[in-house]
Amino acid sequence: MSRGDAGRMPIDKRVNSAAEALADVSDGATVLISGFGGAGFANVLIRALRDRGAKNLTLVVNSATHRYSLTHELIEAGLVRKIVCTAARGHNKEPSPFERLWVAGKIDLECVPQGTFAERIRAGGAGIPAFYTPVGFGTDLVRGKEVRCFDGREHVLEQAIKGDVALVRADTADRYGNLTFRYAQLNFGPVMAMAAKLAVAEVRTVLDAPIPYERVQLPGVFVDRVVVAGT
Amino acid sequence: MTVRPLNRLQTAWRAAQDIGDGMVVNLGLGMPVHVADYLRPEVDVFIQSENGVIGVGPLAPVDRIDTDLVDAGSRRITLRPGASIIDSSSSFAMIRGGHVDVTILGAFEVAANGDLANWDMRLANKGPLVGGAMDLAVGARAVWVIMEHMTRKGTPRLLETCTLPLTAVRCVKRIYTNLAVVDITHDGMVVREMLDAMTEAELRARTGAPLIFAPDCQPLVTPPIATAD
Fold this sequence. Notes:
- The structure holds 2 protein chains of 2 kinds.
- Chain A folds into 2 domains: about 25-110 and about 165-230, Glutaconate Coenzyme A-transferase, CATH 3.40.1080; about 115-160, no CATH class.
- Chain A is built from 6 helices and 11 strands.
- Chain A has helices spanning about 20, 45-50, 70-75, 95-105, 115-125, 190-195, and strands spanning about 30-35, 55-60, 80-85, 110, 130-135, 145-150, 155-160, 165-175, 180, 195-205, 225-230.
- Chain B is of the alpha/beta class.
């Protein structure tokens, strides 16, 4: 359809199902998954990713497993090669599905301080390849990283994280992909959507009318596909 | 001589007395979250939680739980008047950028130079969990620690050098234990308050680093507070 076509259809990022939204996720993909503490887990998309069965995935997610998240299904299905996270500890005395595979040397782990985790992803979506941060200096988590002194204080060079796909949970969307979030659902959603080649949002509902500009928390420019997941 | 250490809530109460009006405060998981229950009545603060909540209110009553409204400890909370919510990268910009006046953290060990070890106990077969501890320890304008003075095995947690993996170097300003209030200074650990029933020798025997007793060292006194357990 040409731009000059007066009858053109406006942009529409809605897709019919989570399976359709993830149909082109391939083996070896880096998947950014939002969610923190029970808020904002994209569980409908996580399950669709498991059903899709793409292998050798790298997950970038705050918690490797969480009692309200379904990431353990990807791990148990043997689809995950590496996890980049801030928390890799299971809730129970028995090891979590992640801990079992990690102890057995079958899954790689990169544990990152949470603010550095968020900022590396933000940088990935903001065109910044690397940055210096004071966080982590003198600790095991930054061993081998470049250190430089600014204003008399040691800083560590951290590299941006980019994803092939981001799975984000939001509250409402419109056809343009604009999103609103409820309360602490927001967490990593915006930066993860910005840092991924393909940003998919699952939402409670898609509104018929455009979301008023002052209520948009993530512009649709950063969102490629929207799927209704319900509550 | 028997020493009756403070219980967890009394230690949190003592730390809460030092929170000033108008502060932005981040409270770590465990003992530190109880500080919010014992703020002085004339003090109004914003409690920042690193998942992006600015203005954490009391825990949600059972009939008002909302699973999207949680703090960094996954606790279902409410918001106080004037609260706002930002995304995680903005929240850590707030922390790293020096906009949080004080963070109160739990700890396994603190060294005489202020080094903090509070994230990795080297548990066999358990994955690491760092969360926001390193960012808070580096970024907050002041880092206070609430901890038991000794381990359950009876070994000191206040040391010349930490033995566990560090969270951050030279970051702790003040330590509240169940026995004493200790400041980290250029000269080392300075005892500001100590349980009345203790002697200096008894506190030294429970501490793994040299202690300086402040000339105006006060008795550590709290009201009786019953713990649930």
